[in-house]
Design brief:
With 471 residues, the chain is of the alpha/beta class. The protein is built from 16 helices and 18 strands. The structure holds adenosine monophosphate and zinc ion.
Length: 471
């Protein structure tokens, strides 16, 4: 019998995601029927997250929303790295948190607490609902990390050097699967700083404190020290999600070292495939360079808000591009995204009194098709706009369909939007306008609306008053 797949339930058709490991899109086949396990590498909380970091979490949130919409139950971890991430990913340099704490003459804990709070606030501002995620801290999982090293030691994957316990990549022949690192070439010609490592790509599982007392250090069977950054992720993933997980995400800078190391130590310890699908977002760039705290070209969400941008326009900007496409950040592009989003809000606000009726299946199914095809949010947004402009669709149906689409986009099309600070002068004008409106003096109220608009704001009437938005 001929079956039109467009009318099948989404789950039956499946979600396809690009797997960095196989270099192709694969259908998600969860390991358990009860849930989908996802581990997203979280921030190192020594400073505020810059907007490039935030691209990583809007991407993770889009994945989460897509899965929920397809009736999967995501069990999703975003870890908090609060120790052990060195200024150089290859186990050299200073611990970023230790360095920040010493510079500011504060305890490591006060630094990590402050920036964890700031990180969670940024997520909320971008409508990433934190209650949907678990945020474990590396420092709460020291025993689990030591346990993995003990297993690796027992299985002959480790060796000791002057500064720590290292993973011997030669004992894991599959090393470098992600991004295709050729270990033979690495072992041969490498002139990297080997210190007393056996192979260039060997990495620290445990680092000794050395002569200087550290702010954060723990006892271990090998001596006082702290865990390697890569190990933290394996330990938190395994203890919260199990030895095998469905999806692992992170920025593409993590492929080469961090994620190959996570795979090596997890799989060598458990003998099982660690993650089925590896997903990586491309960078957010500024003038051709990756935005990064260490490059010193950071831009922060708080600054954009201070400049008057509404935070969800950054989310809109991210959604306009595919997550695997590098995105060049400019104020102009953010302004463009904000204009588009506000046009959308003008439309959805105009539906305030319209009763939502039926989902328009043609649009919603094509929209889901785009999102379930490796999170093609750019295509999804263009379908949304087609719907908005379609004169043949009733407003009630548009409203219902847009509500459903927004569950996947998180743009608060009908919800409570986080507003930017509105200057007092504008607020006063808007209050006056509201008074005239109540007195049915529409001439005066329209004059004030124009004045407000000239100053770059718009007043939108709601059932119970008005809201002001920046144009
Ligand atoms: P970090 O706090 O440096 O460990 O980074 C947190 C997350 O942000 C990681 O998944 C990084 O790969 C990602 N990331 C860092 N910089 C950028 C950027 N400019 N664009 C996109 N993702 C980034
Ligand atoms: Zn990680």
């Amino acid at each position: 019998m001929f079956l039109n797949w467009r009318f099948l339930k989404p789950k039956a058709r499946g979600i396809h995601l690009y797997n960095t490991k196989s270099k192709k899109k694969e259908m998600l086949k969860p390991l358990h029927s009860s849930h989908v396990s996802i581990y997203s590498c979280g921030p190192t909380v020594y400073a505020a997250a810059q907007i490039g970091n935030l691209r990583s979490y809007v991407f993770a949130d889009t994945l989460h929303r897509a899965l929920t919409n397809a009736e999967y139950k995501p069990k999703h971890i975003i870890n908090i790295t609060d120790v052990g991430h060195l200024t150089d990913d290859a186990d050299q340099g200073e611990d970023k948190i230790e360095k920040a704490a010493k510079k500011e003459h504060r305890s490591a804990e006060s630094i990590t607490k402050e920036y964890t709070k700031a990180f969670l606030a940024d997520l909320t501002t971008l409508n990433i609902v934190t209650g949907r995620y678990t945020f474990p801290k590396a420092t709460d999982h020291i025993p689990e990390q030591i346990e993995i090293i003990e297993v690796l030691e027992e299985k002959g994957h480790t060796y000791k050097t002057k500064d720590g316990i290292y993973f011997d990549t030669k004992t894991f022949p599959k090393y470098g699967e992600l991004g295709g690192i050729n270990l033979v070439e690495q072992q041969g010609g490498a002139r990297t700083d080997m210190r007393d490592k056996k192979n260039p790509k060997d990495f620290a599982l445990w680092k000794f404190s050395g002569k200087e007392k550290r702010l954060q250090e723990w006892d271990s069977p090998w001596g006082v020290g702290f865990p390697g950054w890569h190990l933290e992720c394996s330990a938190m993933a395994i203890s919260h999600l199990g030895e095998q997980i469905d999806i692992h995400t992170g920025g593409e800078d993590h492929i080469y070292t961090h994620h190959n190391n996570e795979i090596a130590q997890s799989e060598a310890a458990t003998g099982k495939v660690f993650a089925s699908i590896w997903m990586h977002n491309a960078f957010l760039n500024l003038g051709g360079n990756k935005i990064s705290k260490s490059e010193g070209n950071s831009i922060y969400l708080a600054d954009l808000i201070k400049e008057g941008f509404s935070p969800l326009s950054l989310r809109y900007l991210f959604l306009e591009a595919h997550y695997r496409t590098p995105l060049s950040f400019t104020k102009e592009s953010l302004k463009g995204a904000e204009n588009a989003l506000h046009r959308l809000y003008l439309f959805t606000d105009s539906l305030a009194k319209t009763k939502a009726t039926f989902v328009h299946n043609f649009y919603l199914n094509r929209f889901k098709e785009a999102v379930y095809d490796d999170l093609n949010t750019a295509k999804a947004l263009s379908l949304l706009w087609q719907l908005v402009r379609d004169g043949d669709v009733s407003n009630g149906s548009k409203k219902k369909t847009l509500e459903r689409m927004d569950r996947m986009l998180g743009l608060e099309l009908f919800g409570k939007r986080l507003k930017v600070d509105i200057p007092q002068e504008i607020k006063v004008l808007a209050e006056k306008r509201e008074e005239y409106r109540k007195q049915k003096d529409f001439k005066k109220s329209d004059e004030l609306r124009d004045r407000i608009q000239e100053k770059g704001y718009s007043v939108l009437d709601r059932d119970n008053g008005f809201i002001i938005e920046k144009l």
